[in-house]
Hints:
Layout: E1 8-14, H1 20-31, E2 35-41, H2 46-56, E3 60-61, H3 65-73, E4 83-87, H4 93-102, E5 106-109, H5 117-130, E6 134-136, H6 144-155, E7 161-169, H7 183-188, H8 191-194, H9 199-202, H10 204-215, E8 219-227, E9 238-245, E10 250-256, E11 265-272, E12 275-280, E13 286-291, E14 297-300, H11 309-313, H12 325-348, H13 359-362, H14 374-392, E15 397-399
Parallel strand pairs: 1-2, 1-4, 2-3, 4-5, 5-6, 7-10
Antiparallel strand pairs: 7-11, 8-9, 8-15, 9-10, 11-12, 12-13, 13-14
Amino acid sequence: MAKNPTPVRLGMVGGGSGAFIGAVHRMAARLDGRFELVAGALSSTPERSVASGAELGLRRAYGTWEEMLQAESTRDPAERIEAVSIVTPNHMHYPVALAFVEAGLNVICDKPMTVDSNQARALEAAVAASGVVFGVTYNYTGYPLVKEARRLVASGALGELRKVVIEYHQGWLATRLEEDGNKQAGWRADPALAGTGGAIGDIGSHAENLAATVTGLHVEELCADLTPVVPGRRLDDDANVLLRFTGGVKGVLVASQVAIGAENDLRLTVNGSRGSLHWRQEDPNRLVVHLLNAPTQVLTRAGGPYLGAAAAAATRIPSGHPEGFIEAFAEVYRNVAEAIRLRERSANAGGMGSDDASPSDAGLSSAVPDYPSVNDGARGVAFIEAAVASQAGGSVWVKVGRGA
């Protein structure tokens, strides 16, 4: 990566006062000095939006995202934003993202990318036409030992893959917080704002992406049992899904937001003919590897030369110092920034810039910006849709669409 690159000028839509994920995005964006937040339309009402921007000390605080897009598009190129971060409730992802892509601006979008596959396909087409960089913040892919797990699987260390188990347990929605004025619960429990998936969309999409990133496999068919456990809730808060991956590999995905006592317990197990690996988000600096007829290995982040280049590049501080959620989130932002500058250098040199560089495209080379792309986002939306369709049909097997 380039040394001391000029920070990418960033705008933000959503994420104002009281929004948890907005603060996370801002911390992640500035951690490596690769972005400078200069503008924002941070709330759904102009008054709150301007007030939130002033609270953050933004140079340019706008009342609406449309106002921001229009004003920034006519600003001097040396000052206007170069990318926008979208951290709104799900129903606003598509119209905002499409407008900024069509204006030639790079986008970092929270997941799920859109509320349906028609929108996802339209975004894929728009990104391909414009050539902008489009990243989706499946942030768990940024952990160093997730990258190491992917390298081990790709190297054949586990042999032929047999079964993938991915679990994501939370307990914060075990009661109807949406009825108590909780802002985060309120929009997640509302189909008009969240889309057709509840837990399957909010955290199940993270689980699908993590499994796909590490294994390189995509879900071809699934059978889902989605349940609103809490009485009166309109969207599922508990999901149990059987998976059939490419190549005949079987899998199980469990996503629950009513598991009392669970905080953010995301776990991945990959089983192969010669070994297995286990990783847990709440203990992210350890990767447990079991190889056939060999002692159990516990790999640690910054553990030395036995780790691959991608894991090493994603490690920021020396071994023994915990590294976690914000750093993993920042890894997505850092690689999006590098892709933006790479595209810019290519354009200046008269070459062709890539519109995205997903983990599946980037291989294992740390020289290629490695982040979840618009295509990964579209696959995640297709997964959610298939799970909802399976439940609607009586928990039947449903093929998962491929998007564009």
